[in-house]
């Protein structure tokens, strides 16, 4: 049912699957998770709330619901391709199987995350810590797995594999550096606001975080786009 692309390494549905997954996990997921982990005290000028809820929460919920919808769309696209002998040859089956296993874990995590997020108990409930811990662990695992999942499939592609590997290595390196910087800021921020009664953060940290979130968005976008372009050349 699916058409083989010009060079025949990937079918169109696989390219569409890869493109949507790359965009979702590099651009959307990283942005949405950053807001939940490091953006809790964010404010725009005096504003700490948008439409009645905290800035971080509105961004986190909206971006990750979109990410969930696009992940499921990407999943349906790869299921729709069916078994195609022409494109299965010349491929490393083990790496593709490993990719599929990580992929299934990510798709399952997304369903669990959204269900958990929507049906969570209130912030004051004594059981709330269960949601917080499980939701955090599952979210971080899904995001972490997305990196090897993309690496594995990129390593079996034939056109410009070096380009794909360099871009993915840059993405991995950027995520590690960004997390280290933001963890340091978070630690310093906690030390400063511990002396205050209200949970606010000094405006220099607020500006720095907003700058880093924007930088992440731009880095993610400028790495995801060439990855997708190379994918369509397979
Ligand atoms: C984090 C992002 C990704 C997720 C969550 C994901 C998820 C999945 C899943 C669940 C499957 C198994 C489907 C089945 O059993 O038929 C799969 C297969 C596949 N994915 Fe992905 N994928 C991702 C990224 C990519 C990328 C970037 C590409 C690049 C082309 C890609 C290409 C493929 C291919 C070719 C298959 C078929 C494997 C086979 O025939 O054995 N995926 N993916
Ligand atoms: C694919 C979907 C999602 C992923 C991957 C995800 C991921 C995460 C992660 C990693 C954290 C923890 C950040 C930290 O380390 O502190 C978090 C926190 C949170 N998320 Fe999500 N999330 C998703 C969807 C949702 C949805 C749909 C909602 C609400 C409707 C939601 C509500 C929350 C809340 C309330 C917290 C804070 C929990 C706490 O107080 O520790 N999430 N999310």
Can you give a write-up of this model?
Residues 1-191 form the Cytochrome b561 domain. It is a multi-pass membrane protein. It is found in: Membrane. The chain is mostly helical and 234 residues long. The chain has one domain. The protein has 7 helices and 2 strands, in the order H-E-E-H-H-H-H-H-H. Helix 6 runs antiparallel to helix 7. It is globular and about 55 Å long. Bound molecules: protoporphyrin IX containing FE (2 copies). One protoporphyrin IX containing FE binds at residues 33, 36-37, 60-61, 64-65, 67-68, 110, 113-114, 117-118, 132, 135-136, 139-140, 142. One protoporphyrin IX containing FE binds at residues 10, 14, 17-18, 21-22, 25, 75, 78-79, 96, 99-100, 103-104, 106-107, 146, 149-150, 153, 231.
User: From the alpha-carbon coordinates, what is the Rg to the nearest angstrom?
Assistant: 20 Å
Could you say how many structural domains there are in total?
1
Helix content: over 70%
Bound compounds: protoporphyrin IX containing FE
User: Runs with pLDDT <50, length 5+?
Assistant: 1-6
DSSP summary: helix tally: 7
Number of E strands: 2
Largest sheet: 2 strands, antiparallel
Question: How do the strands line up in the largest sheet?
Answer: 1-2
Q: Based on helices, strands and strand pairing, what is the structural class? A: mainly alpha
Protein name: ascorbate ferrireductase (transmembrane)
Enzyme class: translocase
EC number: 7.2.1.3
Keywords: Electron transport, Heme, Iron, Membrane, Metal-binding, Transmembrane, Transmembrane helix, Transport
